[in-house]
Design a protein that fits this description.
Elements (H helix, E strand, L loop, with lengths): L12 H33 L4 H19 L3 H29 L1
Helix pairs in contact: 1-2, 2-3
């Protein structure tokens, strides 16, 4: 009943965990968006070489991770994205050299 309610005695552990998860997903999504937009801007808008843009983006992603206190999983993800982009960029460059002359 409503008369049994006492303010401040409800267990809010589930609500705290849900909010913490929401914030973590928001920070991860925001950082991934920032890193992606930065790389695309450096390569296509500024005209920087793809490898230099990739290295600059990885450095900025690492600094942002340090600034926001991200855990090891952020750096593993950033390294995986760096390696994946390095392999894909290398393949595209090789095809360009073969077919472009």
């Amino acid at each position: 009943m409503a008369s049994d309610y006492v303010r401040g005695e409800m267990d809010i552990a589930d609500q705290k965990a849900t909010f913490g998860g929401f914030i973590a997903v928001s920070v991860w999504g925001s950082l991934l968006t920032v890193v992606s937009v930065l790389y695309l801007t450096l390569v296509f808008a500024v005209g920087m070489d793809w490898l230099a843009g990739l290295i600059a983006t990885a450095v900025v992603g690492g600094v942002l991770g340090l600034a926001l206190g991200m855990k090891t999983s952020w750096y593993v993800t950033l390294g995986g994205l760096f390696f994946f982009s390095l392999v894909c960029g290398g393949i595209v460059q090789l095809f360009g050299m073969v077919f472009g002359g």
